[in-house]
Amino acid sequence: MGGKHILVAAALALAAPAAAAELPAALVAKVGATVDADTARLTAVFKDLHQHPELAFTETRTAGIVAKELKALGFEVTTGVGKTGVVGVLKNGAGPTVWFRADMDANGGVRETTGLPWAAKGPQRLADGSEVDVMHACGHDGHVTWLLGLAKAMVTLKADWSGTLVVYAQPAEEIGMGAQAMVDDGLWTRGFPKPDYALSSHAVPGPVGFVANTAGVRMAGTDQLDIVFKGKGGHGSAPELAIDPVVMAAQAILSYQTIISRNVDPQSAAVLTVGAVQAGRDNNVIPSTATLMLNLRWLQKPVREQMLTRIDEINKGVAIAAGMGPDAMPTRTMKGTAPPLVNDAKLVDAVNPSLTELLGAGKVIGNFPTVMGSEDFQVAFEPLGTPYVFLLIGIAPMEKFAAAQKAGRAFPYANHNPDFFIDLPAVALGTKIDTVAALALLAQK
């Protein structure tokens, strides 16, 4: 969902001392060997997924691959949850139930520039016949691959753990609507085993071989909303006979900037971004409407409410000043929303020592700043109060990361950019990280 970046340089300096590993070294080594034996297949899966990105709620091909792979491994598979979501259940005796998520959707409006042989093949045709550039510019192809690798590894290692593993592929994370769609479609009323713990992970442009996992508020809450300004259409040569919604939209965009700078407490983090402006088609026609597509980020609910209130006030004021009547005020449509993501402290402590055993000392970042990027993973577990952990896994080549640092840049590239890519060694390593995290909660002690 946009901007899930960690300040790796600062985090490395703040890394807490590693605790003693919980999982036996022999089991962690077994995970490594199991995934290494599967790396060629996983790399092929990853490349295929990257070449065939799909937008939110259209991830039918990706969901089909997930369902087929999980069925072949012996999972009880349910498809079509929240339109394209897939849930796989593997029962393996007594013990806790752990849910592990991967998101499936790609980014629209991004044309890949990596030049990789497995780059996205072309634009996606939408239901209305139009086409849009689509790219896995946020790593969800890697997330799905890691999930499938985790599923196979956990089947192979069934003798080493006990409990129930639920792996699921979620649609529409980028627009913040997928998790809620699965809940609304009966995620907790279909008879799936209720979770004791939940896990997920995300690709970030830190160096391969590092993972960030710390307790507390990790990511901001978010809202996606559309504002429609209504005007009076007309000829471009006679603006006095029209009321121009494009001008209203432009005035609103500039006024929105004062919400953060002049209304929100400077010590309260918040972001307001206008990501798209849609109005008109022809050079000489004043359109009847103009639409603004906004994104909000916040850490505190009162700040969220303050931003929404001020947006409404600005919209109304602009419309009245333009001469619109009370029956033609701007409309606000709320779309995807998610609260801040908060890692459970006890789960962080349970998982990190085993990750240190896997990666080595200093590679597990236990203390890094809260970021204003957002997620909807946690939305699914709010109704149950399930404790969860969300891992951030480095996927950039170390040499590129080091060069960026030397040049004064935080990262060599960013999520949602056309040059984003997952370094191939991260395919296997991300799988190992996810598998060790799950085993840390399920392995027989």
Automatic annotation (TrEMBL):
Keywords assigned: Hydrolase, Manganese, Metal-binding, Signal
Sequence ranges assigned to domain Peptidase M20 dimerisation in this UniProt record: 224-314
A GO BP annotation: diaminopimelate biosynthetic process
Segment forming the signal sequence: 1-20
Pfam families: M20_dimer, Peptidase_M20
Domain of life: Bacteria
Cofactor note: The Mn(2+) ion enhances activity.
Co-factor requirement: Mn(2+)
Protein name: Amidohydrolase
Species of provenance: Glacieibacterium arshaanense
